[in-house]
Write a structure and sequence with these properties.
By secondary structure, the protein is mainly α. The protein contains 22 helices and no strands. The radius of gyration is 37 Å and the shape is elongated.
């Protein structure tokens, strides 16, 4: 029995962790997207791309139907940004949080059932945040959880959700603005998604909500209010059922979103998304979808006068691209991709390219100051923005260049030990994409640099420099062993060798710091300061390297000159060469001189000879 309990506990932990992590990543990013939609739509689109990338990387353990629901809603949010629909974006964000709220809600009760109170305590605030529930509910929930009253706890949540659904439907019915009524009805729908598998909510269904929103989107306000009235009645029934003392039957918590409800629910199935209506505020209307993977509600048609239609901007984009792309099918495909990224002219495309290069410089500054994780996140945003806004046009003109740029940006995003010189090559590669429109290129040298960067970026380059730094100690050891005597000139020469090899040791040490501080390897962030030792990283290290070059020159000159003087290769001015007074030598004396020359020089006897590693 204990073994099975441990297995259930581990399963609950595995299920809760991805939902909690994903929510922590998505929620603040989506809030920033909402805040920047009007003031900085380009930045909002980048953040939305980041949210898509983060979710795609971390949603592997999430239930497939929930994963597909979030991905589709994120794609719909992208379209809402492109069409500048504030109401539609707000609706998509509510739906995304509701899907994640459903996963957190089920994970919370699974953790309680498994006896994992610590994990449940971590999940509870996120459940309230995802649903927009009051924080005062947390104390009541903790008290019931401490008493192990899971049925009472579930009824507390269901009563709160039922009251929220009823209130939102009442506000939607009272609204005179179609957009506000749409948002209130979407709020009710999002709350229902979290408790949609409760047997006490059998009168409500996802299809009923979506049908009502579809009528509002088509402008049929009277039918919408009639449907909302029927939904409000069912919401009141749900509230009465969950508040009634007779509803004390125990219901087992749903451990996965794929388990269909016993009664009154909607069986999960693949989503069906119809085309979006042609309007400015809404992004698309959708038909009924499964409850845990919600049907994304349609946005109502706005009453105010619409701004310049998107169709005209799309035609302008087609006109700009027609000068570059001759194939009509490819032209439309590129135009669709660019318009989805908010690009409606070649000037917009060029501004997007400049924006991407600017973000690349931001990543360079982060890498230069040792913020490797922040630089990696910025590079992920650069890569995502390039693929959505820049690459479609470059692929039509130079497919190999687009493929190469995507590959090298992907490598840089996941590489360890990034240096500022890498960003120089990456910036040049983005400039190469801009020159592709004019049929120009940076030339063969840039292509060689890109090839080298693709070959050595990351661990291979780090290994090379770490190995070089370690091997630099070996010649220094041999130098000390061989020339470590009392001759000061040999010591100067040893210092010259030391400063000559010091940059290699510093570079190797900097790459050790890069690996140890990386969150995927050592996770020791304080070692990130060692990256400042790299000559490739900052100006200070380059100036220090220049100083070591001067020190090498100075010490080598002093040492080699002294050794040359000791070996007699340089004459000392204080002991000039002596010359004989007589230019002619008598023959007898010559014979004597020859005989004397055959004798050993008394100045070089064993008593007066100087050791080669000593001073005179």
């Amino acid at each position: 029995m204990k073994r099975w309990f441990a297995i259930i506990t581990l399963f609950s932990l595995a299920w809760a962790t991805p939902a909690l992590t994903l929510y922590d990543q998505l929620a603040p990013t989506l809030d920033q997207v909402r805040a920047l939609q009007n003031s900085n739509p380009a930045r909002a689109l980048e953040l939305l791309s980041k949210a898509e990338d983060d979710f795609r990387k971390g949603a592997g353990e999430l239930a497939p139907v929930l994963r597909e629901g979030v991905q589709q809603s994120l794609a719909d949010a992208r379209q809402a940004l492109a069409r500048r629909s504030k109401a539609d974006l707000e609706a998509r964000i509510q739906i995304i949080k509701a899907i994640m709220g459903k996963a957190l809600y089920d994970s919370y009760f699974s953790a309680l059932a498994a006896g994992n109170s610590a994990e449940a305590s971590r999940l509870l605030p996120k459940v309230l945040s995802a649903s927009g529930l009051p924080n005062s509910l947390q104390a009541q929930a903790q008290a019931l959880a401490a008493a192990n009253d899971l049925d009472g706890l579930r009824r507390l949540f269901e009563r709160t959700y039922a009251q929220g659904i009823a209130n939102a439907l009442q506000r939607a019915q009272a609204q005179t603005s179609a957009v506000q009524a749409y948002l209130e009805a979407t709020r009710a729908y999002a709350l229902y998604l979290i408790v949609q598998d409760s047997p006490r909510a059998r009168g409500l269904s996802a299809k009923a909500f979506v049908d009502a929103l579809g009528k509002l989107s088509s402008g049929n306000l009277s039918s919408f209010k009639a449907d909302v009235q029927a939904l409000a009645v069912q919401a009141q029934n749900f509230l009465k059922a969950v508040s009634s003392p007779q509803s004390q039957q125990r219901s087992s918590p749903a451990t996965t979103a794929q388990t269909p409800p016993a009664t009154g629910g909607v069986r999960l199935e693949a989503p069906r998304t119809p085309p979006a209506p042609k309007e400015v505020a809404p992004a698309r209307a959708e038909t009924a979808q499964p409850a845990a993977y919600p049907a994304t509600p349609p946005t109502p048609k706005p009453v105010p006068v619409q701004p310049a239609p998107i169709q005209d901007a799309y035609q302008q984009l087609l006109g700009d691209l027609r000068f570059l792309i001759k194939d009509n099918r490819q032209l439309e495909r590129v135009a669709d991709s660019l318009s989805g990224a908010g690009i409606y002219s070649i000037d917009d495309w060029k501004r997007a390219l400049l924006e991407v290069r600017g973000r690349l410089m931001e990543a360079q500054a982060q890498a230069e100051t040792g913020q490797t994780d922040a630089a990696r996140r910025t590079l992920a945003q650069v890569n995502a923005r390039y693929r959505t806004a820049i690459a479609p046009l470059v692929e039509a003109l130079q497919p190999q260049l687009a493929l190469r740029t995507s590959r090298i940006l992907g490598l840089a995003e996941n590489a360890v030990g990034l240096r500022t010189s890498d960003f120089t090559v990456l910036s040049g590669e983005l400039l190469e994409n801009g020159l592709a429109l004019e049929g120009k290129s940076l030339g063969a040298f840039h292509n060689l640099q890109v090839w080298l960067l693709q070959t050595i970026l990351g661990i291979p380059r780090a290994f090379v420099f770490i190995l070089a730094g370690l091997l630099a100690f070996f010649p220094l050891y041999l130098l000390t062993l061989t020339f470590g005597g009392r001759n000061i000139y040999w010591r100067f020469l040893g210092l010259a060798f030391f400063f000559l090899l010091l940059p290699a040791m510093m570079e190797g040490l900097s790459y050790i710091g890069s690996i140890l501080s990386d969150s995927r390897y050592g996770r020791l962030s304080f070692f990130g300061a060692l990256t400042h030792l790299s000559i490739q990283q900052n100006l200070l290290a380059q100036l220090f390297w220049g100083l070591t070059v001067f020190l090498v020159i100075i010490f080598a000159t002093i040492g080699l000159r002294g050794i040359a003087a000791q070996f007699g290769l340089l004459q000392n001015q204080r002991t000039p060469v002596r010359r004989g007074r007589n230019t002619t030598i008598p023959q007898a004396s010559a014979a004597t001189a020859v005989g004397a020359s055959a004798k050993p020089n008394p100045g070089l006897t064993s008593e007066t000879i100087v050791e080669w590693d000593e001073e005179f």
